[in-house]
Amino acid sequence: MSPRIRGLRTFRAWLQARPQAADALLALGLLLVGLPQMYLQDFPESGDYAAFRTPDAANGLIVVVVTMALAWRRRHPLPVLLVIVAGEMSLTVWGYPPSVPDVMAFLIAIYSLAAHRGLAQSALGGVAGFVSFLVSLVMLPVGTSPVVLVSDCALVAGVWVLGRNLRLRRAYFAELEDRAARLERARGTDARAARIEERSRIARELHDVVAHHVSVMTVQAGAARRIIDRDPGSAREAMSTIEEVGRTALSEMRRIVGVLRTERDADQAGRELAPQPGLGDLGELLDHVRETGLSVQLWIEGEARTPSPGVDVAAFRLIQEALTNTLKHAGAQARAWVRLYYTDADLTVEIEDDGRGTATIVADGTDNPGHGLVGMYERVALYGGELRIGPRVGGGFGVRARFPLEA
C-alpha cells in the first residue's frame, strides 16, 4: 500500500471518529468555493440581476454565519436549520442575491434534520423550511417562472425524503445488527444450557455405573476374604465375578465418557462403544446382584411393550440405582423385589426390599444418599413420569416410578 493511500485512509478514519470536524470542513469547503464567486462575478446594470444589491461585507458575514452553522448539523439539526432560514430571510429582505454557500447550506440542513431526527421533529422542521423557501422565492425582486418554482420546491422535498430514507435504512440495519446480536447471545445461552444438561446426564450415568458396580465388587470382595481359607474355589469364583463386573464397569464408563471425545474420533468411538443398556439387560443386572448374596425376584405384569429409548434407559438405571442402595444399606439378610407393570400408556416400576431402609442413613449420618436420589428424580422427571421414594409398610424401603411409554 502506497503512503498516499495509507494517508487517505487514516484521514478518513479520523473524520469518521470526529463528525463535527468533518462538518466544519464541509462548511469551509463551501465558503472557499462560493465566496470568491460571489464577490468576483460581475452583475449587469440592467436585467434581472440589476434588482439585487451588490454583495458587500454584511452579505459576506451573513453567508459565513449561515454556512458555518453546518458544523453542528448532526448534533443540533433543528437549531441549525432555523439559523440558516433566518439568514436566508435576512438576505432576501435586504435584497442580496442568492449564492452557492447559503443555498447549499439550506439544502444540507433540510437533509440533516430528516436524517438525524425522528419523524415528528423532522416533519415540523421540513415544513418550516419549505414554507420559508416559498416565501423567499416570492419575495425575490425578480419574477420566478412556474417551472422554476415547481422544480425548486421538488428539489427541497426530494432532499428531505432522501434524508428520511437514509434514517429509516440506518435504523433497519441497526435493528438487523441488534437482532443478530440477540440471536448470537441466545445461541450462546442455548449452547451453555445444552452443555450443562449434557454434564448432568453424564454425571447421572457415571454415578449409576460406579455406584452399582463398585457396590457389587465390594460385596464380592468381602465374601471372598471371609471364605478364602475354608473354600478357595468359591473365593476364586467371587474374584472372577469381581473381574467381570470391573470390566463391565470400565466398558460402560468408556462408553459414557466417549461423548466427550473430539469429532475426529466420533465415528471410531461409535463403532467401539456398546449401546445404552435397557430393560432387555435386566436379567443380567439381576444375576450380578444375586451373585452378591442378595435375593432378588422379578415380576412382570401386563403385556410387555417397547418403551421409548430414553424411558428404557431411565427405567434400567432406576432399578440399578435402587438395587445398589439395597446392597449398601438394607443389611445382610435383606430381600428385594422388582416389579414391572405394563399398561397401554404407562410403565410402572417398583423396587422394594425388607431391610433397614435408607431412611436410617440420614438419621445416623453414616452416608449421604442425596446424589442417587436426586438422580432418580431427574431421570423420571425428564420423561414426564412420577416418582415416589420412601419406607415400606412393615419395614424396608420402596421406590415406585411411573413412566409414559411414549417420550
Automatic annotation (TrEMBL):
UniProt keyword list: ATP-binding, Kinase, Membrane, Nucleotide-binding, Phosphoprotein, Transferase, Transmembrane, Transmembrane helix, Two-component regulatory system
Pfam families: DUF7134, HATPase_c, HisKA_3
Ranges where the Signal transduction histidine kinase subgroup 3 dimerisation and phosphoacceptor domain occurs: 198-263
Spans traversing the lipid bilayer: 21-40, 52-71, 78-97, 124-140, 146-163
E.C. numbers: 2.7.13.3
A GO CC term attached to the entry: membrane
Catalysed conversion reaction: ATP + protein L-histidine = ADP + protein N-phospho-L-histidine
Domain DUF7134: 12-170
Superkingdom of origin: Bacteria
UniProt-listed Gene3D superfamilies: 1.20.5.1930, Histidine kinase-like ATPase, C-terminal domain (3.30.565.10)
Residue stretches making up the Histidine kinase/HSP90-like ATPase domain: 314-406
Enzyme class, spelled out: transferase
An annotated Gene Ontology molecular function: phosphorelay sensor kinase activity
Record-given protein name: histidine kinase
